[in-house]
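Moderator note: this is an archived Q&A kept for reference. The question asked for a predicted structure of one protein chain; the sequence and the answer are reproduced below.
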Amino acid sequence: MLRPQPKAGWRYYGRIFFLPTNPFTHESKHMATSYPASYPERVSRLNKHIGQGTLIRDKYQSFTMEGRERVCLLAALAPEVIARKEPSNCPGDVMPKWLAHLTPLIDDLGTFDAWQGTIRRYAKLAGDWHLLTGDAWDRLAIKACRIGLGECQEMTPPNLWAAIDKRWSLEGTEAELNGDQLIHLQDLVNKQVAPYRTTSVPGVKPQPWSPSQKSARKALRALTAGRQDITYGGGIESMWRDARGCHIAQKASIDRMTNLLFDAIQKEIDAALAELG
């Protein structure tokens, strides 16, 4: 029996013809992603994907055999990130860059049992966080750093933690450091990121750090990063990735940090609503 000939641009697999997927966008050629015209449309798109069960993890976008689009949490709200799989492509009026970088981590690396509650709470917050000012988002960026550091506290030497708390107070506002104090903090952090523990006992070889201690030291490096990287880049996302390594239950660590961040966002939203009366 002669095999049927596909139309131009189509490929034959068994008994089914498929349009080849665009390797750059992972979209079929007849399935272009349209961008929402307004913020309410973005939130509606996100809630629609949640309601239809077409939100996915570990991928930005895919399509079912029937042609139904499936997207990740970030892409549901900001489809602009799909083409290059880059959170930085999320428009600034949707969310700040640091949260765009953090969203795939929240979506993909938490526990499966908590995922449904996480995405629904995220969508609820997204429906209201357009009320937040730039100052509110800056406070939340600092809070996200504190949350990451909190996961590292058990693995942090007391003298280093005291210096950390001076700059990133876990309660209250961020304390300013002058140049000498910042250099001192950097020196303390650099001692903790050395490849081996130091020892003053003659004849005793330095011992390597444990995996948890390595993760804590990597996360602490974010303290000496510039504010630009923390607020506008992936500094907070990198810190959270490393902070989870301080714990055996790494997925549970992500859930814990996510819930603390969501609590902080809700608190800022409540304050904004109170001002509006």
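Archived answer notes: The longest strand covers residues 11-13.
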